[in-house]
Amino acid sequence: MSIPLLRAAALALCLLAGLPSVGLAVEEKVVLGLSQDRVAITADFDGSEILIFGAVKREAPIPQGLPLEVIVAVSGPNSPVTVRRKAKRMGIWVNTDSVLVDSAPSFYAIATSAPFQEVISDTEDLRYRISIARAIRSVGAAMNITNAQDFADAVVRIRENEGLYSLRENTVAVDQQTLFRSAIDMPADLTEGHYTARIFLTRAGKVVSSFETDIDVRKVGLERFLYSLSREQPFLYGLMSLAIAIAAGWSASAAFRLLRNN
Question: What is the pLDDT of residues 68-95, one digit of tens each?
Fold first, then answer.
């Protein structure tokens, strides 16, 4: 029997047995929705919650086997960070070593539908840089620096304590392997800029589909005016700040004299 006939016979047997056949894998794609794609930072801004929800688009029945898992990762603007190590010298704490971490997100939150290690393999995590440790890029350090990885770990530890980095396992609800939803809490001290929301669909630890969208975080109103003025017209911003300080001091002094005379 020729090879094409053997392949056709194997395909027929797979279909009759209800087994998935090679080359006929069900394609699954993300259809995403956001409760808001813009976060406005105002004077009374104390944080925000973004509801991320979506569905899985497929044109065939749900594949048999391990269930579909979902990962949601929201990251803020990346920037370099200088990390310094302190040591005690002659009874005084001083900076001894410093390492420039090339790129670290100002905010990073991960939500998963199951424990992280069960949702994605280490190889796929390395490929897509999903975990917090792999979202930080540190190319290298000087030869005299020992334990250079400790500096990147320090960035993670500090920002986790500040609520800027978080891993929230089992917080993505998946219904019938088709609908999913999760809420990401964003703290009050957000950095202005473009945030990225990434969604990954996985099966057996392997990414089968991904989707990416942007969330715009901006100061608005008076906060936006003062922020822009401080960056674009620093001299004028300084004069205005000085004038406000003088006016506030004079007003306080006048009020105090008025109260004392009465």
Answer: 999 999 999 998 888 887 777 777 777 7
Alpha-helical runs (H) found in 122-169: 122-128, 132-135, 149-161
Using CA atoms of 249, 254, 256, 261 in order, give the dihedral in degrees to the nearest 10: 160
Encoded tokens for 155? 């960035």
Tokens of 176: 């019938």
Q: Count other Cβ atoms within 10 Å, centred on residue 13.
A: 11
Residue appearing with tokens 């070593």: 97
Does residue 212 sit in helix, strand or coil? strand
Residues 209 and 177: beta-carbon distance below 8 Å: no
**CA nearest 172: which of 242, 244, 112?**
112
SS3 194: strand
Higher per-residue confidence, 42 vs 111:
111
Q: Hey, what are 162's tokens?
A: 């500040």
What is the CA angle 102-103-106, rounded to 5?
140
